[in-house]
Each structure stands twice: as C-alpha cells, then as structure tokens.
C-alpha cells in the first residue's frame, strides 16, 4: 500500500492459495490479483477494491465515518 498524499492510499496485491495445489474439491482459483484505492477527506473514508482470478471477478465499495 502506498500513501500518495495525506488522504489518498493506493494498494495492489497478489494472493496465492496454497491449498489449490492439494487437489481438494471446491478450491479452484490459485492466484488472485487485487487492487484498491482509499480516500480519507476529513472524517470520512471512501474505499474501493477489486479482485480478479481465473474463476471470479469481484468489486467492493466501503464508506466509513470516524468520530
């Protein structure tokens, strides 16, 4: 995760599922790529994230307030 400014964070990652090499059923994806950005102006936090693998694509948005 990189802090680009006092209120902007950017992140990228790679997650590898070690259990995918065992041949167990129900564990299809081996590697997932992830990315996200968070903005924290004032007391708010707005975060978006995404993931991609050979089996799925996903996204999330989160809104939070600190007081």
Characterize the structure shown.
With 67 residues, the chain is mainly β. It is 0% helix and 60% strand. The protein has no helices and 5 strands. It has strands spanning 2-5, 8-16, 31-39, 44-52, 57-65. A 5-stranded antiparallel sheet has the order 1-2-3-4-5, with no helix packed on it. The protein is elongated. The protein starts with a strand and ends with a strand. The mean pLDDT is 87.
- Helical segment tally? 0
Averaged pLDDT: 87
Global morphology: elongated
Largest sheet, if any? 5 strands, antiparallel
How much of the sequence lies in strands comes to over 45%
- The largest sheet has its strands arranged as 1-2-3-4-5
Topology, pairings included?
Blueprint: E1 2-5, E2 8-16, E3 31-39, E4 44-52, E5 57-65
Antiparallel strand pairs: 1-2, 2-3, 3-4, 4-5
């Amino acid at each position: 995760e990189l802090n680009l400014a006092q209120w902007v964070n950017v992140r990228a990652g790679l997650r590898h599922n070690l259990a995918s090499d065992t041949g167990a059923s129900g564990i299809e994806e081996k590697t997932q790529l992830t990315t996200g950005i968070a903005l924290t102006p004032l007391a708010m936090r707005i975060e978006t994230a995404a993931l991609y693998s050979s089996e799925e694509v996903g996204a999330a948005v989160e809104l939070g307030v600190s007081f």
